[in-house]
Amino acid sequence: MSQSERPRTPIEITVNGRRHRLSIEPREFLLDVLRNRLHLTGAKRGCEMQICGACTVLLGGQAVSACSLLAADADGGEVVTIEGLEQGGALHPVQQAFVDCTALQCGYCTPGMIMASVALLGENPDPSEDEIRAGLRGNICRCTGYKPIIAAVRRAAGHAEEGGDGHD
Amino acid sequence: MTDRPFKYVGKSLPRADARDSVTGRTRYTADLNFPGVLLGKVLRSTVPHARIVSVDTAAAREIPGVVAVLTAADLPALVKETRFGPVLKDMPILAEGRVRYEGEPVALIIAEDDLAADEALESIWVEYEDLPVITDIDAALAPGAVVLHPDLLGTGQIKDVAAQPDLGRNICHQYHYTRGNTEAVFATADHVFEHTYTTPMMYHVTMENPAAVAMPEGDGLIIHVGTQYPFLVRQMVAGILGWDLNRVRIVVPAVGGAFGSKEYMNIIPLAVVGALAAAAPVRLELSLEEAFRSMARHGSRVRLKTAVSKDGVLLARQCEVHMETGAYADSGPRVMRQAAYRVPGPYRFEHLQVDAYCVYTNKVVAGAYRGFGATQATFAYESQMDEIAHALGIDPVQLRLKNLLQQGDDFMPGDTPIDGDLPKALQVAAARAGWSERPARPGRALGVAACTKNTASGPLVSQAMVRLNNDASATLLVGTAEIGQGALTVLRQICAEELDVPPERIRVPRPDTETTPFDQRTSSSRSTVQMGLAVQRAAQDVRCQLLDTAGKMLGTDPAQLVSDDGVITGPAGQRLSYKEVVASFAGAFGSEVIGLGSFKPAVIKGPPPVNGQVSGFWEINAAVAGVAVDLETGEIKFEEFITVTDAGRCINPATAHGQETGGTGMGVGQALFEACHYEDGYFRNPNLVEYRVPLATDVPSRMETIAIENGDGPGPYGAKGMGESSILTVGPSVANALFRATGVRLRNLPLTPESVWRALRSHR
Questions:
Q1: Listed residue (B423, B411, B490, B519) closest to B455, CA to CA
Q2: I need a surface site. Which of A165, B164, B491, B728 has the fewest CB within 10 A?
Q3: Candidate from B209, B484, B656 with C-beta closest to A143
């Protein structure tokens, strides 16, 4: 059917502090709305089945897979994406820690990994290494072997003496 | 340069792209937006081997929103050559009369949106007549097997290996090498060991699935694509179109991982024909399942027969290597050739025979993958070293020390000698792991492996340009692709060091064949060394011009000038800033100082080694793995990994060690989890549920990476490349640890709990 014939549903979502009223197709996922309608391309398309974590954003403070959440189910909600972490030009402590620990290489998993880490620290402000590993099982990184990522989260949790540049 | 300590080299400066990546600003192909861009979707074969009886696209063409529907029949009107391939031109853009793997592109839809495209895909009727399926290497080689490529066209556009196919036996290339007389030694040796090792086909699982946007621009074509090889891709696209090179422009955005899967054409020809047919920009983005179905890593079978003296001296080795390359050759012949070259291992053999074959099967096309054949070869030769050690009652580390090539030894006549200290690397790894103090116990043990890999071999050229602006900021133009390895960060640091300008004032754009100078390719761990030398020379060229100009300004011989921190000082204490010198360069008008540098491989003196390529340098690695094995379930808990790599010199230690932890992480997948499963040619697990890649809980919690920095590399400041040797030693060291912990020897990867459990049961 043509674009004009397709069903529409109105939603209202707040993304990175800005309220949006959108007329979406019911089949759209939150990821489609963020990337295609709001041009927030930080959240990435990967597996499209909630395994790789590249699409991780916060909804009501919880980490969610935007690829598998219908946008209509986020109606009335507050979404934070990677683009919303920086405040007034200053990096969020997790972002800064990822820079300091070289916790990224190709960078594709990085937005999702950072959002998942922010959510993790929100629930557990001083996690052990094992707790960080378990908490980030929903985010795949193919480049780093995870070691500098664990160090970055520890650093963001206040353990600045560890991690450093992520190597011996 | 002077003898002063380095200002920027050797420091773990933040990555050039770090801030962009942590704020979501880094843009990959799928993040780019183009007005009027159309969507390309591929209709793929649902059967592994069949004749295409008919393709009916009539209904699809009528769907509103569908702009074009292409099959092979439509291509001669758009392109000069419908088949391509880096070695053998065996791969059609769209299947021609026959499909040879499940997932092979049969038709291309160009549509205004995904609903129209999906409706079109479902409206196309293809009638297939099944053909016998070549399910594995043995089926391919069996007498009377169906021939997959009876009519191969000429050789590929990039010729550095002369294809020696034996098409009647489904072999697309072979390699043979003999020195000495292995049979005579086998007849009299104290011990002869013979084992066969296998690895399955795998997929790279880059986090970014392949994507490309092609758009006509004037009489040319622009292609935005995350590729490792922008210049070779340009050459291949121009080749299929019959166009001048400068009518094709390849622009490389950020690349979300590659590991070899984004080297050659992949989906690019589809984007090209789509854009030409639609006369509009066309975007193709593969789903993860499509990505699984587009590129693979070779499966392998390696048989090693080795003669050893009773006191553990290796005497002779026969190697038979079969690499399963899937339905089309891609770079398979080269991968096989390198596997064959490396399969003797880093050991002295007076007598050696290698016979290797690259075999077609009805599976996804296998190409380059981190290690490029060395991954398969190393698993075999390092597993057998431990089998030999056990049989002779010799400690595995001692057996290796007895036989490892020393620095300066020849690996193969005609090639660059070994340029690092392998025994030392092994000793460092063993000492760090506490090898002598930690004997194996039931269920817990250490395992060791060592390797070398010839790297950056062959005719590889890199060219660089440095443009110093009149405010003393600079732009460094290189065709090296940033695929995560940190290349642009490292090259910027080298430029900063040579130019004596802080890295923050140097901008390094991503490759664009229209503006960045030629680079052969980003592969083979070569960029720090070879593009690094080009960058070094380009920056030095700028400094020379600055000193010459300053000399003229001061009426002094440039040799009398000292330059430090962007200030040039004359013999009488006169000071000129870079800004002042650049301003004077063209007579006080605005201008820039442009420096050029290039790297070309040395002319080969004497006969080249058997694989025809002189190695740039040798990657060297030794590692110790520590595992605990659950004897009830067969699960291997990979607890620790100490890996030692000869880095030459770490330009940026953080990114260098990142290559080691990253290679280790991928090695964990190869060792314990990853395998593409096929049944009768049908690919059963092209998804992340059933194809397991390592998660944060799967990698060793103790992961130590040690870089040896003896300055033994040919690159700037004695640097070597790195990033591949780290993956090679993971699989065999874990298999060796498994044996030492349980007495069970597994010769097939991955070491899943099921395979360990079964072996434990039959071992009892």
A1: B411
A2: B164
A3: B484
